Amino acid sequence: MGHTIGELADEFDVTPRAIRFYEERGLLSPSRQGTTRMYGPRDRARLKLVLRGKRLGFGLEEIREMLDLYTVEEGDAIQLRHCLEVGREKIAALERQKQDIEATLEELRGFEKQFVRLLEEKGPVD
Which residues form the HTH merR-type domain (predicted)? Predict the structure, then answer.
C-alpha cells in the first residue's frame, strides 16, 4: 500500500504543491488509483533524499543525477565519478563558507570587545 500526497506532505512537513513540483520534475513517479496519486516506498525514499539534498544545498538537477544512481548499471563509473565530483565541489564550497563565517564572527567579536571597552570608559555596562 502506498501513501497519498497528503500523508507524504504531513510526514515530511512539505506542501502537496511541493510534492507535485518534484513529480513534474521527474523526481517522483506515483501510481494512480483513479484520480488519487499513490506514492510507494520508492517515492517516499526518493522524497526523503530530495529534501536532504535541498537541505545540503544541492540543486534539483544535481539531486536528479544522484537519484539516478539507484537505477544505473553497476558498471556506470562515469556517472558515479561525476556525482563524486559534484559532492566534493559542494564540500569545498561549504568549507569556504565556513571559513568566511568564522572570519566574520572573529571580526564581530573584536568589534564587540572594542564597544564594551568604550562603554566601560563611560560607565557600567550591562
Answer: 1-69
Per-residue model confidence as pLDDT tens digits over 33-78: 888 889 999 899 899 989 998 988 888 988 888 887 766 555 467 7
Round to whole Å and give the CA distance between 28 and 10.
Answer: 17
Cα–Cα separations (whole angstroms), residue 3 to 23, 29, 44, 51, 109: 14, 12, 8, 17, 50
DSSP 2: -
**Spatial contact of 19 and 27, defined as CB atoms under 8 Å apart:** no
* CA–CA distance, 102 with 82 (Å, rounded to integer): 30
